[in-house]
Design brief:
heterodimer, A: alpha+beta, BirA Bifunctional Protein, domain 2, 7-stranded mixed sheet, 3-stranded antiparallel sheet, B: alpha+beta, Phenylalanyl-tRNA Synthetase, Chain B, domain 1, OB fold (Dihydrolipoamide Acetyltransferase, E2P), Phenylalanyl-tRNA Synthetase, Chain B, domain 3, 6 domains, 29% strand, elongated, binds zinc ion
């Protein structure tokens, strides 16, 4: 058998074996058997030196050509088998995508915090700085400087929790004391909002809490008007409840404002037509407001003939209730996780 | 204040329905809180005439009444003892909806014809209770003779009661007439006040009938003496009106004083003059030691700052608050002295507070009543008494008025309306509104002069006048503008920002924010108190100095909290009833005594975790939350805040002695954390084995926080090397890490402990701590030779500082 015949026979056999290799491992074994260090093609090439001199050039060329052909064949076969193998592994790796996901451990901010931060952001855009004040207050700031003298029945409007002390200390009944504190230490223009806890001596029920949160607003400057108050509150209502909301004023009495009003927003649910949520009135009460009383301005050394201002107060829980549909204010300090979890989503 | 609409309508015809008027008044500052319709359900009830009353053939206690109402003529079986022929009564036909007269609670029933002891009864004659007018069910309700027979009862007796909330500034509207005046002004209709005759023509009586010794507290006192009085029940119409207004009928004299008070706002009092020593009145301060038995049968101690009405000898009434029993009008009374007076508002308020007494009279006086209301109210009451008690007559009238009050003028620029409202009001609208409210406005050259009537003490400033005009004209046309002009730049509050960041970090750590009550009690504080009465958690105070509420809402919780932990433990306990694990926090204030007027309100974060680390789920790995879960969370917060903390073992009465650490930044204690003692956890009702708790002071963190700075962008691959360090068991891991970092120098960008080993390959009493250290240099890739030198230095420093050996 000539060298060429030997090599042709080897090629045919190897080709047949490679076609039979069913998987990557068999192909790799084939490579080792033919092209590896001890493979038959490698051995043949190594044996060329011992051939008769005249046969060597032909045998060397033919052997190398065969090596290239087989390597090509192997590479094609390996690629096919590898692709097949990958598909098989991927198929075996399939999951039920409807199974529950691996939950990241996340808590939630309290709805009151969320509302305070949101209001603080909204008012910052309107030029109001957020400031904070003490919760244990003197009667002077909580009442006297707000035009609520001890000998007037207006003082009875606030059921007050008193703190044991030589002077008259109270748990602040509203965030309004900061009106005087801010004005005493700054000159107009003043634009602040004051969020925080307030306290009342009041029996608890679905709409009353002894501890709740308010946000006070105050703007004092030359030329501040009640129309500005309406515009500011309208902007607030639109940011919170939608771009077409309207604000309505109703005359009301708060000793530290004159004129005084309470303000309501038209019900977003029924667009002011009247529904169960707004008790058929089309309006939802939001808080109290008015023009800063001249005596309050005088009390902090502002000239009421030169400066005017508006002030308003909002109930934080009330706003959160209006927005989230919570119908019992006690839930906010109840802190049941089944309640709190529902505030993990953005309001 | 309850206002029957028919009563109001005697003084003004607004043309509005009760609901429309209530809304109009509400918008103008008189808030209608409730509207009650009387007779809304009287569909089949008519004014009937009793034609005949006969004995029931089958029952002694029942009668057969023949009652006619228009075309209806019915036979009714009734047991009412007071029925008589000729009466006008309320006749209910079959199908009428009536209240059950025998039921304790209001229960509506539909009337059906029935047969009672063999006689068919086709309708019913009603009691007040059955009609929902009162609780009276002794007999049937007998109507006035002039009641028109056959008309629906609702036309004769039906009414709408509007209940107004009268804010403390509204003394002028604290009466039906005052509200009628508001209604008239708002609807531009005339007001028709009731007849109040002038009594000045009456005989003056003895010169000393009234003496005012304290004119500072009593600007005016008028006494009207009426004899020939027969005390008895009031007429039906007055009794029913008082009932609708929420006042119980007593007798005709007392009822008239109440009626006029409701109508005019001026409290009145009637004395039996025969029980006044010398039949005269002295208005004076109480004398030391004097007492009075007031009409509520309380013996009351009086003090010299209190104003009393006295006779020649002793106090007979507490001025503006309540009369005394000794001079009370009784069935035997024939001559009365009717008081209409004005008392100083502050004095009435102070006396009422001292005696813990509030009456319909005092709430009116406290608001500052008009002295010039006195003669009208006295005249109106006298007119009513003379009408109700035929044969009675005025025998003396004395009106002592030492401190005359006249209307005052208020002058302002008309521009003030626009300055405050931001809208131009028309001059005619303003002048018209003010005039209708009873002010006398006069405008000349933009200067508005307003004569303020004496019944409007609340109007003293231009801003008050602006409100008066605006509330009548209405706020609806007010434009919505935004404040113009320069503003100070808005700066964010650093503590608020820090709290926000901490809150978000904790939420990211799986914790839920809570908001808790600030008051705690002995039971919650005790576990946090040591033998020396130092109490609290991170911040400890002397227990005797704790801030105490004088009138806490819950008597067992009189203290302001110095730590948030007890509140969080209570919330944890209640949540663990339905949760397998909880992670809770609160960011709020701790109230610490400061020695100053106000307490030190420190912003702190409290964290409590307990129970299973993960909720039930297919990925959950079992395991209870412990110290290290919480420590990791606290570290996350401190990292967020920008401080580098050290954890140092410590003790606290509420904490596990071997699982507690104080957190230091420099020398400052910024936090305390540890696992609760099991007995403390049990005291709060928590059954979990381990309850890690922590408190962090945000005010201190804010002072210490260092912002991110000197950040470099990494350009070269880091090299990682592991170090197993064998040290004595008692060396704390933090010391080993400190030494490791010192040895590694600035090239070490990260150090992580990944294993702790004790066992056969390590000598007894020693442990092996395995760290992976990441090395990076900003400007080059590190060479093996460099790392080898670092390794040698680490070995040296560990040996020197903690006696450590490198195992690999
Ligand atoms: Zn609605």
């Amino acid at each position: 058998m000539s060298v060429q015949e030997q090599l042709d026979e080897l090629r045919d056999r190897a080709q047949g074996e490679l076609d039979d290799a069913a998987d990557l491992a068999a192909a790799l074994a084939w490579e080792k058997a033919h092209l590896g260090p001890k493979g038959d093609v490698t051995l043949f090439l190594r044996g060329v030196g011992s051939l008769p001199t005249e046969d060597r050039p032909l045998a060397g060329r033919a052997g190398n050509a065969l090596k290239i052909v087989l390597a090509d064949l192997f590479e094609q076969r390996r690629a096919t088998l590898a692709a097949h193998d990958l598909e098989q592994r991927l198929a075996a790796d399939a999951i039920d995508v409807t199974l529950p996901g691996r939950p990241p451990s996340l808590g939630a901010e309290h709805p009151v915090s969320q509302m305070i931060d949101e209001l603080s952001d909204i008012f910052a855009l309107l030029g109001f700085q957020t400031v904070f004040g003490p919760e244990v207050e003197t009667a002077r700031y909580n009442f006297d400087l707000l035009n609520i003298p001890a000998d007037h029945p207006a003082r009875d409007v606030w059921d007050t929790i008193h703190v044991e002390s030589p002077g008259e200390l109270v748990l602040r009944t509203h965030t309004s004391p900061m009106q005087a504190r801010v004005m005493e230490t700054t000159q107009p223009p003043v634009r602040v909002v004051v969020p925080g806890r307030v306290y009342r001596y009041e029996a608890q029920d679905a709409s009353h809490e002894w501890m709740f949160h308010q946000l006070e607003g105050l703007a004092v400057d030359r030329h501040i008007t009640m129309a500005d108050l309406k515009g500011t509150l309208t902007e607030l209502a639109r940011q919170l409840f939608g771009p077409s909301r309207r604000i309505r004023f109703r005359c009301d009495f708060f000793p530290f404002v004159e004129p005084g009003v309470d303000f309501a927003v038209d019900c977003a649910l029924c667009n002011g037509k009247g529904c169960r949520v707004c008790k058929g009135t089309g309006w939802l009460e939001m808080g109290g407001a008015g023009m800063v009383h001249p005596r309050v301005l005088e009390g902090v050394g502002y000239d009421p003939a030169r400066y005017s201002g508006f002030a308003f107060g909002l109930g934080i829980e009330r706003l959160a209730m209006m927005r989230s549909g919570v119908d019992d204010v006690r839930a906010f300090a109840g802190n049941d996780l089944r309640f709190l979890r529902q505030f993990a989503r953005a309001a | 204040m309850r206002v029957p609409f028919r009563w109001l309508s005697e003084f003004v015809d607004t043309g509005l329905t009760p609901r429309e008027l209530a809304h109009r008044l509400t918008m103008a500052g008189l808030e209608a809180e409730k509207i009650e319709e009387i007779g809304a359900g009287w569909d089949k009830v008519f004014v009937g005439h009793v034609d005949r009353v006969e004995r029931h053939p089958g029952a002694d206690r029942l009668v057969l009444a023949t009652v006619r109402a228009g075309e209806h003529c019915l036979t009714v079986v009734t047991g009412a003892p007071n029925i008589a022929a000729g009466q006008k009564v309320a006749l209910a036909l079959a199908g009428a909806r009536l209240f059950d007269g025998h039921s304790e609670t209001p229960t509506l029933k539909t009337l059906k014809p029935g047969t009672i002891r063999g006689v068919r009864s086709e309708g019913m004659v009603c009691s007040e209770k059955e009609l929902g007018l009162s609780d009276e069910h002794e007999g049937i309700m007998v109507l006035e003779a002039e009641a028109p027979g056959g008309v629906p009862l609702a036309d004769w007796l039906g009414d709408t009661v509007i209940e107004f909330e009268i804010t403390p500034n509204l003394v002028h509207a604290f009466s039906i007439l005052g509200i009628a005046r508001e209604a008239a002004a708002l609807t531009d209709q005339p007001l028709h006040p009731p007849d109040a005759p002038n009594l000045t023509a009456a005989p003056a009586g003895p010169a000393n009938l009234v003496e005012i010794e304290a004119p500072d507290l009593c600007p005016r006192y008028s006494a009207t003496v009426i004899d020939g009085i027969t005390v008895g029940p009031s007429p039906e119409w007055m009794r029913r009106r008082l009932e609708l207004a929420g006042v119980r009928s007593i007798n005709n004299v007392v009822d008239v004083t109440n009626y006029v008070m409701l109508e005019w706002g001026q409290p009145l009092h009637a004395f039996d003059i025969d029980n006044l020593a010398e039949g005269r009145i002295v208005v004076r301060r109480a004398r030391p030691g004097e007492t009075i038995q007031s009409l509520d049968h309380q013996q009351r101690q009086l003090t010299p700052d209190m104003l009393v009405i006295a006779d020649a000898e002793r106090p007979v009434a507490i001025a503006g608050l309540m009369g005394g029993v000794a001079s009370e009008v009784t069935d035997e009374t024939t001559t009365i002295l009717l008081e209409a007076a004005n008392f100083d508002m502050k004095s009435v308020r102070a006396t009422g507070r001292a005696l813990k007494l509030r009456t319909d009279a005092s709430v009116r006086f406290e608001r500052g009543l008009d002295r010039n209301l006195v003669p009208d109210a006295a005249g109106r009451a006298t007119r009513l008494l003379l009408d109700i008690c035929p044969g009675s007559q005025v025998v003396a009238v004395k009106d002592v008025y030492p401190r005359l009050l006249l209307p005052h003028d208020l002058t302002m620029s008309f521009a003030e309306f626009e300055r405050l409202l931001g809208m131009r009001l028309s001059e005619s609208d303003v002048l018209g509104a003010l005039a209708r409210l009873g002010f006398a406005p006069h405008l000349a050259d933009d200067i508005l002069t307003v004569t303020v009537p004496t019944w409007r003490p609340d109007v003293t400033l231009p801003a008050d006048v602006v409100e008066e005009a605006a509330r009548v004209i209405g706020y609806d046309m007010l434009p919505a503008t935004l404040p113009s002009g320069e503003t100070a730049p808005v700066r964010r509050d650093p503590l608020h920002l820090l709290a926000q960041g901490v809150r978000r970090t904790l939420v990211g750590c799986g914790a839920f924010e809570t908001v808790n009550y600030v008051a705690v009690g002995e039971a919650q504080v005790r576990p946090f108190t040591d033998a020396a009465n130092q109490q609290g958690f991170l911040h400890r105070i002397d227990g005797a100095a704790a801030i105490r509420l004088r009138n806490p809402l819950h008597g067992d919780r009189p203290l302001l909290r110095t730590t948030l932990i007890p509140s969080l433990l209570e919330i944890a306990a209640s949540n663990l009833k339905h949760e397998t694990g909880v992670r809770l926090f609160e960011i709020a204030r701790a109230y610490l005594p400061s020695g100053d007027v106000l307490p030190d309100e420190r912003m702190v974060v409290g964290i409590v975790i307990a129970g299973q680390r993960e909720p039930v789920g297919r990925f959950a790995e079992p395991g209870a939350l412990d110290f290290f879960d919480l420590k990791g969370t606290v570290e996350a917060v401190l990292t967020r805040a920008g401080v580098e903390p050290r954890f140092v073992p410590t003790t606290h009465p509420a904490l596990h002695p071997g699982r507690a650490a104080v957190v230091l930044v420099g020398d400052s204690e910024v936090a305390l954390l540890g696992e609760l003692r099991p007995d403390v956890a049990a005291a709060f009702g928590i059954e979990a084995d381990r309850v890690p708790v922590a408190e962090i002071d945000l005010d201190t963190l804010l002072e210490l926080a260092e912002p991110v700075s000197g950040v470099r962008v990494a350009r070269f691959l880091p090299a990682e090397q592991d170090f197993a360090i064998v040290v004595a068991e008692e060396i704390p891991a933090s010391d080993v890490e400190t030494a490791l970092r010192a040895g590694a120098g600035p090239l070490a960008s990260g150090v992580a402990l990944f294993d702790i080993y004790r066992g056969p390959q390590i000598p007894q009493g020693r442990k092996s701590l395995a760290y992976r250290v990441t090395f990076t240099a900003p400007d080059r890739a590190l060479t093996d030779a460099e790392l080898e030198r670092v390794r040698d230095r680490i070995a040296k420093v560990l040996k020197q500082r903690v006696g450590g050996e490198l195992r690999i």
